[in-house]
Amino acid sequence: MKILVTGSNGFLGKNLIARINATDAGSVLSFDIADSIEVLEEYIKKADFIFHLAGVNRPQEKSEFYTGNSSITETVIKIIEANNLKIPIVFSSSTQVGNGSDYGKSKEMAEKALLAYQERTGAEVYIYRFPGIFGKWSRPNYNTVVATFCYNTARGIPIEIRDPDYELTLVYVDDVVDLLLRTLSERRLQIVTPTYEITLGALADIIRTFSSKFGSLEIEDLSLPLNKKLYATYLSFIPESKMSYPLLTHADNRGSFTEFLHLPGYGQVSVNISKPGITKGEHRHDTKHEKFLVVSGKGVIRQRMTGSPEIIEHYVSGDKMEVIDILPGYTHNISNLGDTDMITIIWASEIFDESRPDTFFEKV
């Protein structure tokens, strides 16, 4: 199937094309504002399906709303009918239709032209009035306030909010792409879901929290779907200079220990390096649960329940991905039996608290 995507270099167009190219949905014919009408006509003649996403929402002149939204739509329809074609079209409209703005009026005119085309030809037409779409590859100060907030915050630029109580309705770009591809495969209008209601003030607070924790051990709670999607959007605006950061390593002649992630409510992840012949540990935790995974080298993990003489031995190696659970109340150690450094990934159910370490030294 040949799929024409207008507005191919735009925010939604880029996300849709990337997904189509990663699947077997079809081959893409890309048309954008810099292309000629001759290119548009050539592609329409080849197309089996059209995602008409081209549009203008922040022009220099009001007239550009109409040339970039309604006029281009009328041109697409004229080319289709001039070539005696009947091509299904999905149109990206807006919830601003009906609000009296030039943007809303131009989108409404495009909708009416498409519905008339459907009435004349019987072609499939699917019109979606999307609320504010946010996600990766959006443009700050153009596509969405989410992009502007993320861009500014990631660069230390202040966020300006006129009315923090103003409520937005948002939809995530990957959810929109899913919807568009379902429309392609199922050939029926879908419900635009999930959408999210949030105030400008709350949106800014969430994004500021992301910024305060990025580059540290701590990860924001991403259990809420909106937070997870906003976080992915925020990350898409991180400057390349901030894409790496050093960690604090505690090292001595036995090896090293480096905390990697703090996950509030879910503990922490660390990297332990043991030198050949070295034994580390010799302690128990009363509440803390740990998981050890040796990813390089070989050794043995020993543990014993306090008060019991029985020692449990687990021989481990980077050649075998095996998790060893260290249970509360079991004193334990880990010994490097190889000739090279042994590297162990450790998850602990609690973030280390120096005032309450829950670590009691006891020989295995």
Task: Characterise this structure.
- With 364 residues, the protein is of the alpha/beta class.
- The protein has three domains: 1-130, 3-Layer(aba) Sandwich (Rossmann fold); 132-245, NAD(P)-binding Rossmann-like Domain (Rossmann fold), CATH 3.40.50.720; 249-361, Sandwich (Jelly Rolls), CATH 2.60.120.
- Helix content is 30%, strand content 29%.
- It has eight helices and 19 strands.
- It has helices at residues 11-21, 37-46, 63-82, 102-121, 145-154, 173-186, 200-213, 225-235, and strands spanning 2-6, 27-31, 49-52, 89-94, 125-130, 132-134, 167-172, 196-199, 249-252, 255-263, 267-274, 279-284, 290-296, 298-305, 312-317, 323-326, 330-336, 342-348, 360-361.
- The strands form four sheets. Strands 9-10-11-18-13-16 form a six-stranded antiparallel beta sheet, with no helix packed on it. Strands 2-1-3-4-5 form a five-stranded parallel beta sheet, sandwiched between helices.
- Helix 3 runs parallel beside helix 4 (102-121) and helix 7 crosses helix 8 (225-235).
- The longest helix is centred in the N-terminal third of the chain and has 20 residues, at 63-82.
- It is elongated.
- The termini are far apart.
- 30% of the residues are buried.
- The mean pLDDT is 95.
CATH fold-type name of the largest domain: Rossmann fold
Structural class: alpha/beta
Can you count the beta strands? Answer: 19
Tertiary shape: elongated
The count of helical stretches stands at: 8
Low-confidence stretches: none
Distance between the termini: 66 Å
